[in-house]
Design goal:
By secondary structure, this protein is α/β, with parallel strands linked by helices. The protein has 3 domains: 13-141, Response regulator (Rossmann fold); 146-232, PAS domain (Beta-Lactamase, 2-Layer Sandwich), CATH 3.30.450.20; 235-307, Orthogonal Bundle (Arc Repressor Mutant, subunit A). The chain is built from 12 helices and 10 strands. The protein has helices at 21-33, 44-50, 70-79, 97-106, 118-144, 163-172, 189-195, 235-245, 250-260, 265-272, 276-290, 295-307; strands at 13-17, 37-41, 58-62, 88-92, 110-113, 149-152, 158-161, 203-208, 211-218, 226-232. Helix 1 links the parallel strand 1 and strand 2 (37-41). Helix 2 packs parallel to helix 3 (70-79). The chain starts with 12 loop residues before the first strand and ends with a helix.
Length: 308
């Protein structure tokens, strides 16, 4: 849920939201001349519909439009985990500082005055496009490094999480769906808000669906986000238990543990940050060392060892 990888040579895709046909034409011509792909929407409502099937890299948002205003549209963008990562630059002809402050507080990363100065606009766009890519790569690296992290907004709604956190969330709440703003059942948004308050320990332990987890506030890199590390208490000890009773390597024991939870090879690969092929190779060694031929038999042995 944290973004999309860009292939080398892929053009930046910009969504321009403006109700003025002349402004749209000018911006489309300018951006296409810079080698960018351009999508257009003439209202906030049309923009939200377009975002249901398109993923721009940056949005240029007219601050004042009939119907849904740019502020309202941006608020909805930032409330949706699927689009919250997209940087929004406001374009406004208003000079009231309060309007600019409101735009930034809504989730905009920057603003430019109308009439737009092309050089200034392009410079600001390049900075925010680069920042967005760096932020995405950082989050992807965290996920690949095996860290179970989740970010929530000031209201406690989920903004993004790593694949490791997704795997844990699905174990805590089988009905939990990826891509939404809801946390798994049992994880109270009010608790996360409390953990992020100054002076709080920043750590809490919960037992959900028979699984004990620790939630710990960690250092984030974006304003408006509270970043948490969410880990299963005792998971490492279960791996150690399997290691003591088998001839498995630590990675093989980790694979066996997650397989015993009913996870597919692909899910295990996402949780551990390795390829599905590598998971399969580890499983082959697990079967060989345990003297079994099926996942069910290996799972039965693991469950028995852990429960004894």
């Amino acid at each position: 849920m944290i973004g999309r990888e860009r292939s080398p040579g892929t053009r930046d895709c910009i969504l321009v939201v403006d109700d003025n046909p002349e402004s749209l034409r000018f911006l489309v011509d300018t951006l296409e001349a810079e080698g960018m792909d351009v999508l257009i929407a003439r209202s906030g409502e049309a923009m939200l519909e377009l975002l249901g099937h398109a993923a721009p890299d940056l949005i240029l948002m007219d601050g004042v439009m009939p119907g849904m205003s740019g502020l309202e549209a941006t608020s909805q963008i930032k409330r949706d985990p699927a689009t919250a990562h997209i940087p929004v630059i406001f374009m406004t002809g208003l000079t009231d500082p309060e309007h600019v402050v409101a735009a930034l507080e809504t989730g905009g990363v920057d603003y430019v005055r109308k009439p737009v100065v092309v050089g200034e606009l392009l410079a600001r766009m390049r900075v925010h496009l680069a920042n967005a890519r760096v932020s995405y790569r950082s989050r992807l690296a965290l996920g690949r490094a095996g860290r179970s992290l989740a970010a929530v907004d000031a209201g406690g709604a989920l903004i993004w999480c790593t694949p490791q956190a997704e795997g844990l969330f699905q174990r805590l709440d089988p009905a939990w769906e990826t891509g939404g703003a809801n946390l798994p059942a049992g994880v109270d948004p009010a608790l996360l808000r409390a953990l992020a308050e100054p002076g709080h320990s920043g750590t809490a332990n919960l037992a959900i669906a028979g699984i004990e987890i620790e939630i710990a506030l960690t250092q984030g890199d974006r304003p408006g986000e509270a970043l948490f590390k969410i880990t299963e208490v005792g998971e490492a000890s279960k791996v150690d238990l399997l290691l003591r009773q088998t001839g498995l390597t630590r990675r093989e024991a980790e694979v066996l543990l997650w397989v015993s939870y009913g996870k597919t090879n692909r899910t295990v690969s996402e949780i551990l940050g390795i390829s599905p092929r590598t998971v399969n190779k580890h499983l082959e060694q697990v079967f060989k060392k345990l003297g079994v031929e099926t996942r069910a038999a290996a799972t039965a042995i693991a469950v028995r060892m852990i429960s004894e």
